[in-house]
Write a structure and sequence with these properties.
about 190 residues, globular, about 65% helix, Endonuclease III, domain 1, mainly alpha
């Protein structure tokens, strides 16, 4: 695993994401959907490219409003495929739209994406991957792990000597809550 904490310091684009978002707990379903979608877009590409295109991607996908994206149709797909500001990969675009539909159903059952994640948590990465593969499109080990680390459900986003690591610990993300719960039981 590369040391994103060190790498990010040389790039304003990466530094902002590293210092303000990566590994921080997320409580918004739309932000969770955005993070999952960005990880899907990143597959096979650099994270820097995704961060550069992020504002265009966010705009093209209705700011990742789950309800809005779940209603996208063939015309929307064609518009997205013609949008030079985003990653124009049909399989990824169709997967993100399908994931919005699946998230909409999941939210109807569990109340929210956050509730669903919290209900499943804590799990080891291998079990998360299996659940994500059975629940969503275009998710495998790397996408699932990065999504969960970036949103505070798995540890590993920051090195322990990173100043952001201490800030995240103070926010008590789900992986820290799980550790505290285990410690209290013992």
């Amino acid at each position: 695993m590369t040391d994103y904490c060190k790498i990010s310091q040389d790039s304003p684009l990466h530094k902002s994401y590293h210092d303000k978002e990566y590994g921080f707990p997320v409580s918004s379903d739309d932000v969770l959907f955005e993070r999952l979608s960005l990880e899907i877009f990143q597959a096979g590409l650099s994270w820097g490219l995704i961060l550069k295109k992020r504002s265009f991607i966010k705009s093209a996908f209705s700011h990742f409003n789950i309800n809005s994206v779940s209603k996208y149709n063939t015309e929307n797909v064609e518009d997205l495929l013609n949008n030079e500001g985003i990653i124009r990969n049909r399989l990824k675009i169709l997967s993100i739209i399908e994931n919005a539909k699946r998230l909409k159903r999941l939210c109807q059952i569990h109340g929210s994406f956050v509730n669903w994640l919290d209900f499943k948590h804590p799990l080891e990465n291998k079990k998360w991957v299996k659940i994500f593969k059975n629940t969503f499109k275009f998710t495998g080990n790397e996408i699932t792990r990065e999504f969960l680390m970036s949103t505070g459900y798995l540890p590993g986003a920051h090195t322990t000597n990173c100043k952001v690591f201490r800030k995240i610990i103070s926010l008590n993300p789900p992986w820290v809550k799980a550790l505290n719960s285990i410690t209290e039981k013992n």
